[in-house]
Amino acid sequence: MAIDSSNRIDSDDSPEFSPYHHPAAGWGAAKSVTEFMIGKEKEPILGSRAILKMNHENGGFDCPGCAWPDSIKGIHLDICENGIKHVTWEMTHKRVGPEFFARHSVSELATWSDRELEDQGRLTEPMSYDPATDHYVPISWADAFALAGTALRELDDPDQAAFYTSGRLGNEATFLYQLMARELGTNNLPDCSNMCHEASGRALQAALGTGKGTCDLEDWETTDALFILGVNAASNAPRMLTALAEADRRGAQIVHINPLVEAGATRTIIPHEFRNMATFHATSTSTLNLQPRIGGDFALLRGMAKAVLEEAETDPHALDQQFIERYTHGFDDYRAAVAATPWSLIEQQSALTEAQVRKAARVYCDADRSIISWCLGVTQHEHGVDTIREIVNLLLLRGNLGREGAGPSPVRGHSNVQGNRTCGIDNNPPAHFLDRLDEVCGITSPRADGYDVVATIEAMQAGKLRVFMAMGGNFALAAPDTAYTCEALRKCELTVQVSTKLNRSHLVHGTRALILPCLGRTEKDVQRGGLQQTSVEDSMAMVHLSKGMKKPASPHLLSEPAIVAGIARAALPGSATRWEHYVEDYDRIRDTMAQVLDGFEDFNRRVRLPLGFRIKQPARELIFLTPSGKAEFSAVRLPDTLHEPGTLALATVRSHDQWNTTIYSDDDRYRGIKNLRTLVFMNTDDMRERGLSEFDEVDITSIARDGSRRSVQRYKVVPYNIPRGCAAGYMPELNVLCAIGDFSTQSDQPIMKNLKVVIERSV
User: Fold this and answer.
1) Which of 102, 386, 492, 505 is most buried, by CB atoms within 10 Å?
2) Predicted local distance difference test score (pLDDT) of residue 152
3) CA separation for the pair 491, 313 (Å, rounded)
4) How far apart are CA 494 and CA 512, in angstroms?
5) At what angle do helices 141-153 and 560-571 cross, to 10 degrees?
6) CB distance 178 to 172 below 8 Å
7) CB neighbours (10 Å) of residue 395?
């Protein structure tokens, strides 16, 4: 039965039409600024006040949301709607203590929605699963550490344990966490980057000798052209909209490339511009929007490069020949590969016309300096690495590297996911890092590669992995092939979840299970050495301190470094590592990190500078740590990524009112959706071909590489401006459709942005 219009925001109020729509701070849902400030949105405003207080009165606070850099201009309202929601979510007055778990069995809680679970509030003390009663029961911290330590000590092989990391973990806890794993003897350190930006790291490492982007905010403020691929800035990195609006005002060109024209790719109102907020005066955030089909970014980029090379035949300034000759390797092979790619193939694979591609190339050629930025819309594909290599190829053609206002700029989605990798969370660590770690810390690290996310799940299924520990996140829902992943987790002997709130991963557990509640980033972390601060690294390699100033939600909470140290001491009773000494004062951890990590020299002093410090990127200085000593062109053929007729390419996306697997509400204001998540966005022609109308119920079936099928039933169809042959729906609900074996052979990332599906009317 079709649902009524209550599931759809009227078009006059839709973000696509609202002249005062505000992706950065959410004013579009209110009828006036006053209503937003004092009416229906009281909790977010409390969150904004808390952010401002912690940022400007108490020495700095890093939002636990996205990884967009802090303003370098000292903006006093450098906040966004999602940041306010995330902080408010953490500072809730609701509590989940022993009495809650006494009332509700795990079996009962498993029937609750994910939103209901997290909405119960903050976890207050450690809990242990009792299989006899199917309830979590209180356990002391000492006993919890002993339980985890015993399980780790009794393993036949340290590789029977895996240590997962979410991007919210601070650098100091990260360093201790990987140190514990390696002293135990394993590199099984899967992390959220394995599912998100692994392709970016591998591509940039191969092309430039560094796994990170080279741009900073000053580059964004001086560039002539910005190309934004596969990013929904309004929801994923809302403060990016400030940079886009300012770029538009100074005349820079802004090209958004995405199958969906998202709200933030049109216009915005910036929170700290009070006059514009009061008058609902919006600023443009784009000069061109292009909609390639899902998986068509590589073809578009190849077409732009083809247009540039064709122009170079008559215009000697189209290419930076001096840069190419001096700093690059492999140009002739790349030029031949581009010449061998016909325009007809580019049009077929991108679903764009030659004229549209040339229009983007014209913007690129007319700009003296260009930045190309991307997110998961580029990485979560089979050919994600090749696509990012093509981004670098395009930049190299015109020397858009090693100078202000130019370069590659990946958008990391979670607060400290980049810092996690920098500080040692890597299942395939470089030898020089392990050598330095061993020398400084007096351990012997394993040299064999460890498990990434997909390999961890497969190892659990095969009975090769007995202990699984997660620092933050919601592994059961974030990972692909939900049913398979949950079954794998249940095969573990012990699962340990370090968390702030209840989520699905606490209910999908091993024979034994621990919930270990930790301090949130907003809360005071007081150790023997006094009030502590933790450091994080943003998307542009800036490292700075964050200090919470709120009273902890419970006196029983421990910090993440203290939890890691407690487990490490129990698992490694004879360890010479001074775990307790480190926890007393995090400066001691940073002193050790300064000796191990390149770029962290004089860490404690530099991190206390205003805005912290930026880790040096050799490629920014035109130093390329590649075998040739130069930036490498990639000359691969344009692949065929089209699915067969009758199937669609489905991308999983986030709604505006969620953060990763955390669902704040069932609305998606910027896409005009109200009170609905079990939906699929479709092109109207594809709907008509299947005899479907708005809000009809359909079954969505994915077809995996191995031929297996997975389905969800009775999803609502929503017509949307998306290319023919494409569809989109929300994660984590649709992660169930991504088979465990459907991961990129280039990056090992699950291909959650390009699932082959069949959509049929429900019966």
Assistant:
1) 505
2) 98
3) 62
4) 5
5) 50
6) no
7) 23
Three-state SS letters, 392-434: HHHHHHCCCCCCCCCEEEECCCCCCHHHHHHCCCCCCCCHHHH
pLDDT per residue as tens digits for the range 566-585: 999 999 999 999 999 999 99
Angle between helices 343-350 and 354-366 (to 10 degrees): 100
Q: What are the CA-CA distances from residue 322 to residues 317, 368, 471 (Å)?
A: 11, 15, 48
Angle (CA) 67 73 79, round 5°: 45
Distance of CA 330 to the CA centre of its chain: 32
Angstrom distance (rounded) from CA 1 to CA 308? 52
Residue whose entry in the numeric block shows the structure tokens 């009061």: 278
Side chain identity at residue 352, one-letter code: L
Helix (H, G, I), strand (E, B) or coil at 540: coil
Q: Please give the Cα distance from 254 to 309 (Å, whole number).
A: 22
What DSSP element (H or E) covers 233? helix 233-236
**pLDDT less than 70: residues of the chain:** 1-59, 74-79, 269-282
- Per the CB < 8 A criterion, the answer to whether 418 and 412 are in contact is yes
Is pTM beyond 0.85? Reply is yes
Cα separation, 219 vs 221, whole angstroms: 5
Span 155-185, pLDDT tens digits: 999 999 999 998 889 999 999 999 999 999 9
Helix ranges, 525-619 (H): 560-571, 579-584, 586-596, 603-606
Q: Which residues pair with 652 in a beta bridge?
A: 729
Rounded to whole angstroms, the Cα distance separating 590 from 443 reads 18
Q: Mapping DSSP to helix (H, G, I), strand (E, B) and coil, where does residue 202 land?
A: helix
Question: Rounded to an integer, what distance in angstroms lies between the CA atom of residue 52 and that of residue 65?
Answer: 15
C-alpha–C-alpha distance, residues 443 and 445, integer Å? 6
| Core vs surface per residue 225-261: b (16+ CB within 10 A) or e | bbbbbbbbbbbbbbbbbbbbbbbbeeebbbbbbbbbb
Burial class (CB in 10 A: 0-12, 13-18, 19+), 204: buried
- Burial letters 15-29, b for 16+ CB under 10 A, else e: beebebbbbbbbbbb
Q: Helices then strands (H, E): number in the chain?
A: 30, 30
149 vs 568: CA distance, rounded Å:
7
Q: What is the pLDDT of residue 54?
A: 54
Phi, psi of 314 (to 5 degrees): -120, -20
According to the model, what pLDDT value does residue 274 have? 52
